[in-house]
Design a protein that fits this description.
Strands 13-12-11-10-6-9-8-7-14 form a 9-stranded mixed beta sheet. A 5-stranded parallel beta sheet has the order 2-1-3-4-5, with helices on both faces. The chain is α/β, with parallel strands linked by helices. Helices cover 35% and strands 22% of the residues. It starts with 13 loop residues before the first strand and ends with a strand.
Length: 392
């Protein structure tokens, strides 16, 4: 608890550090924008690159104090812990293989952690990190950002209220085409590490976007996958990790599901969709039109529910920022994760109970994601044999 209660020079904002996210890193900029949309955080320190020279250049580009631009994350953790105005939380936006050592270092030093997904590269690391987080008593938030969309919150609340009845079928898809050719050979930094098993882990498309589809299916329905049968393929010659994955799912309670994740589906940009069918009705949502949710009660006409419109519920309203008809999108959904993380961190700062209604992905979701990836890989190696998820 040593870092709580320090002098705050940012008008109550949570002092945030960042590891990764330097020049050329898409997700780092997203995290920085999301952290400021609701004005809850102030980015005050960073180890923005594994190369000290690039770290300094990246810090200068975003106006970070040069004295608080660090060459390594270890140096950052030590130096910030010694400051009266040191960071309270760290955002980890590195390639996957660095998530575990960075999160471990900062949790053990007494900092809260906001980590990109997947949480680690192996299930063993995920379980170890979960134990470290529990022992630390610190907030750990996993940025499955699609859970922040208002109409996803609406769908989750409707299912919890029984509007669909017992769930029968869940169909999740995440289709892209940006790896349909060897982008990793054309100088794409993003492609380079995502197709490298030493940096991405055992899953390619399944780890990068399949985990989002899996997480969203479980988050909205409140169900966990018990078993799956997977077929992973690397269609692009020479690629070591899958760029296309399809599977059948068996959820607890008897629901069945299908999941398809592809980064070689030509004509698709960011096609994350979710369809859920129960005994009493169905829901359909698409990330590229996130302010709409289609609801069909059994035997009745299909209804279009919109963010802030007629039929929108309190769960959606609680994470909406602007009037209906003004689209809210990806950055705002990401900001919802940061806003709720701020509520948890402030509660820890004040030793008070966090407000009701926070529905963030947690470290348990991180373990679940790695159990999902490893089950997919194991099943595919066994020609689609049914494999149970090992959550420990």
């Amino acid at each position: 608890m040593a870092i709580e209660g320090r002098n705050d020079t940012h008008a109550g904002r949570i002092r945030l550090g960042m590891v990764g996210g330097g020049q050329g890193a898409f997700i780092g900029a997203v995290h920085r924008i999301a952290s400021r949309i609701d004005d809850r955080f102030a980015l005050v320190a960073g180890a923005l690159s594994s190369t000290p020279e690039k770290a300094r250049a990246s810090a200068a580009e975003i106006g970070l104090d040069p004295a608080r631009s660090y060459g390594t994350y270890q140096e950052m953790a030590t130096a910030e812990l010694a400051r009266d105005d040191g960071i309270e939380a760290v955002a980890i936006v590195t390639p996957n293989h660095m998530h575990f050592p960075v999160a471990k270092t900062f949790l053990e030093a007494g900092f809260h952690v906001i980590c990109d997904k997947p949480m680690t590269t192996t299930l063993a690391e995920a379980k170890e990190l979960a134990a470290i987080a529990e022992n630390s008593g610190k907030v750990f938030v996993l940025t499955h950002n699609y859970t922040g969309y208002p109409m996803i919150r609406q769908a989750r609340a409707m299912i919890a209220a029984g509007d669909l009845g017992p769930i029968r079928m869940v169909v999740a898809e995440y289709a892209q085409d940006w790896l349909a050719t060897r982008a990793e050979d054309a100088g794409s930094k993003q492609a380079g590490w995502r197709v490298d098993p030493t940096k991405a882990g055992a899953g390619g498309a399944i780890g990068d976007i399949g985990t989002h589809a899996h997480n969203l299916a479980c988050y909205v329905t409140g169900l966990r996958v018990e078993k799956l049968s997977a077929d992973l393929t690397a269609f692009v010659p020479g690629r070591q990790l899958d760029d296309n994955a399809s599977m059948l799912l068996r959820f607890e309670g008897g629901a069945k599901g299908m999941l398809w994740a592809s980064q070689v589906a030509v004509g698709n940009e960011n096609g994350l969709t979710l369809r859920i069918y129960g005994e009493k009705g169905g829901l359909e949502w698409a990330q590229e039109e996130p302010n709409k949710l289609w609801y069909t009660p059994l035997g009745e006409p299909k209804r279009l529910l919109t963010r802030g419109g007629a039929g929108a519920n309190q769960a959606a309203a609680a994470v909406s920022r602007i009037p209906p008809g003004h689209p809210e999108g990806y950055l705002e959904a990401f900001a919802t994760i940061y806003a709720e993380a701020a509520e948890l961190i402030r509660a820890a700062r004040d030793a008070s109970a966090p407000p009701a209604g926070i529905a963030l992905p947690t470290i348990a979701d991180g373990v679940d994601g790695l159990a999902f990836i490893e089950a997919c890989v194991a099943s595919s190696k066994q020609d689609g044999a049914w494999v149970s998820l090992d959550r420990g």
